[in-house]
Amino acid sequence: MRVNDLVKSSRATLKHGKMRSLLTMLGIVIGISSVIILMSIGASAQDYILGQVQGLGSNLIIVIPGGSNNGKFSSPAAAQGIIITSLKQRDVDALGRDPSVAAVTEESRGQGAASFGDNSETITFDGVPANFFTVRNFVVAKGYPFSDADVQSYNHVAVIGSSLADTLFGAGSDPVGQYIQVKNVHFRVVGVLESKGTGAFGIDQDNIVLVPITVGQKQMLGTDYFTDVMVQANDTYTIDFAKARVQTILEQDHSITDSNKDDFTIETQQDVLSLLGNITNILTLFLAAIASISLIVGGIGIMNIMLVSVIERTKEIGLRKSVGATNNDILQQFLVESVMLTVIGGVIGILVGGLVVGAAWLVITKVFAVVWTFEFPMSAILLAVAVSSITGIAFGIYPAQQAARKSPIEALRYE
Amino acid sequence: MIEVKDLRKDYVDAEEVTSALRGVSFTINKGDFVSIMGPSGSGKSTLVQILSFLDRPTGGSYTFLGEKTDGMTDAELAHIRNKSIGFVFQSFNLLTRLTVYENVEIPLIYSDVAPSARKKLIEDAVRSVGLDEKLYVETAKLSGGQKQRIAIARALVNDPDIIFADEPTGNLDSVSGAQVMSILDGLNHSGRTVILVTHETATAEFADRIIRLRDGAIESDEAVKNPRHSKEQFFK
Predict the structure, then answer these.
(1) What is d(CA A165, CA A162) in angstroms, rounded to the nearest whole number?
(2) How are beta strands B162-166 and B193-197 bridged, if at all?
(3) In this structure, is residue B203 part of a structural domain?
(4) B83, B89, B95, B101: best to mutate for the A interface, most A CBs within 10 A
(5) Residue B75 and residue A327: Cβ atoms within 8 Å?
(6) Least CB–CB distance from B78: residue in A2, A315, A325
(7) Does A50 have pLDDT greater than 90?
């Protein structure tokens, strides 16, 4: 039997029972669109998360206080509620002297309320040096960033996040030159940051107050250690070399001879990107696996309908065999029908999935104003087509075999 | 053309064995028109099902076109049904969701005839039963007589050596029945072998020879003295 005859015959059969075909396909449409939607949103979320890490700046080495878990990356000690005081000013100074290091920027972070007049907001305040803005890609949209002189002079100046500016001063207003209070300390606003979204470690970078490190660390927190240190590698050295240098310098500084006992953790941007990439990939696959359960349900629906169809068309099977159809011809015919059902269902599922992903993208970018990429990965489409075809074959083979095995005379006698 | 020797068919149901054919032997030559008659349960349908390879015998031998058929595979039997045999059933067995053209096309699909070559074969077959104006009509819309004529066109489309007609007039009024018998008679006159199963004498006498069965065995095998050869004779 020729392929075009198989397709023509199957198409005619499916067209004859349009409503049944559509309802049978529904399970596959739902299953495939779910897989597409989850894979697509997973890919977009991955882009978003990785984008946030890349937004830290370029060629960055992240130093976090506290040792790593057997050399593996673990969440920062601060995120676990543990205060570790191992990173100090002498470390920053030592790192800054190494030729493999282009810049060092340290942070002392705390939480508190920021207020202006009657408006108040709980924020993260971050004591940072003046080079923080360039090293960490924090662009000041209005006003200017504070300078080394401001840091050295303990000036009470602040650069605030864009959404905090809107909350305290109202949307569209210019807060530069105004005074705000952070933890009851007055600061003159000298700049407003460009919107940056949520950053690494889940900090909302638009709801932040950046103050000179001297003020933040010494006056507001009263500490002598840093929350983290970011090291920008010199372009003329590889990032791995710079990472090794940072480790050596800190170990010397902390008098550590066994690397397994380091009281700090060093990660490069690539390490974090790779880790987050792996996590988001696993999450996406996990979600897709859950969605694919509906494909199995859809497949069982197809098998059920095909079995009914085989019984209903017993006489037709007898007729076709009486005029020369072989067992294989009948098997192929029923198999092609079930594969056509699933593949058409798969294509509709891809389109539905695309529409939902597109609508979600519109809502996320326009309504929630989040920088969100529209991802419609080819791998998801190929997977959907492959899975729907395999579903058609897997769940169509049994009914097709039942049809093929019928004896021509018994099939013709069937009433 | 057809030679059966001691052909037997037993149906085994639990502990009971029912013999539908008890050693039937005969020969049918090319161009013969043979009627098989007998009362219900005589084994005539079983015999024609075996002769047309829809079923297998449980004993005896069957030689078709000079070839022993005993050890043939299902696929080989399907090939014979497609190339050498045309069927006309009492209940037409048309796919009513399809048009006349599509119904007549079915045997060609399984004989691997290229789609481009099919149109002429289908048109010729449908024209030979006088229904060429109905080519693209759904068969559900045809009368009983027209449906049976389309079934004959389907039986003819692969140019088979032999036509098996199982009670072809059983579901038809007498006028349509006469038309159908006239077509079968014409096919026989053009050289085709026709084997007809019927319980109606008027229909059976279109053949040159009548084999009568009773209880699974041949009761008589006689030539018809004055075979009927026209529609008018169908009503006598």
Answers:
(1) 5
(2) parallel
(3) yes
(4) B95
(5) yes
(6) A325
(7) no
ipTM: 0.91
pLDDT tens-digit series, residues A151-172? 999 999 999 999 999 999 998 8
- Give percent of chain A above pLDDT 70: 95
Contact between A183 and A112 (Cβ < 8 Å): yes
Tens digit of each residue's pLDDT (9 = 90 or more) over B106-161 = 999 999 889 889 999 999 999 988 898 999 999 999 999 999 999 999 999 998 99
> Residue A69 — very low, low, confident or very high, per pLDDT cuts 50/70/90?
low
What mean pLDDT comes out for the span A220-243?
A: 90
Helix (H) or strand (E) holding B75: helix B74-83
Mean pLDDT in residue range A248-274: 88
Listed residue (B68, B59, B70) closest to B24, CA to CA: B59
What is the Cα–Cα distance from A330 to A308, expressed in whole angstroms?
15
Domain extent, residue B95, equals 30-46+75-234
Among candidates B98, B102, B107 on the partner chain, residue whose Cβ is nearest the Cβ of A324:
B107
Contacts of A325 in chain B (CB under 8 A): 78, 110
Structure confidence at residue B231 (pLDDT): 52
**Spatial CA neighbour of B166 closest among B31, B35, B77:** B35
B107 CA: distance to closest CA in chain A (Å): 5
Distance CA A341, CA A330 (A): 17
Looking only at the bridges linking them, the beta strands covering B217-223 and B209-214 are: antiparallel
Residue B111 belongs to some domain of the structure? yes
Average pLDDT, chain B: 90
Question: What sign for the dihedral angle of Cα B17, B22, B23, B26?
Answer: negative
Residue B211 in contact with residue B34, Cβ under 8 Å? Answer: yes
Spatial distance between the Cα atoms of A77 and A83, rounded to a whole number of angstroms: 7
d(CA A408, CA B54): 6
Tell me what the mean pLDDT of segment A213-220 comes to. 93
Helix H or strand E encompassing B108: helix B100-110
Question: Which residues of A fall within a CB distance of 8 Å from B84?
Answer: none
Tell me, what DSSP letter sits at residue B207? S
* pTM of the full structure: 0.70
Which has the closest alpha carbon to A236: A100, A381, A144?
A: A100
Minimum CA–CA partner of B160 in chain A: A323
A195 pLDDT more than 90: no
Residues of A in contact with B78 (CB under 8 A): 321, 324-327, 329
3-state secondary structure of B166: strand
Mean pLDDT is lowest, of A225-239, A255-269, A383-397, B6-20, for: A383-397
Number of domains in chain B: 1
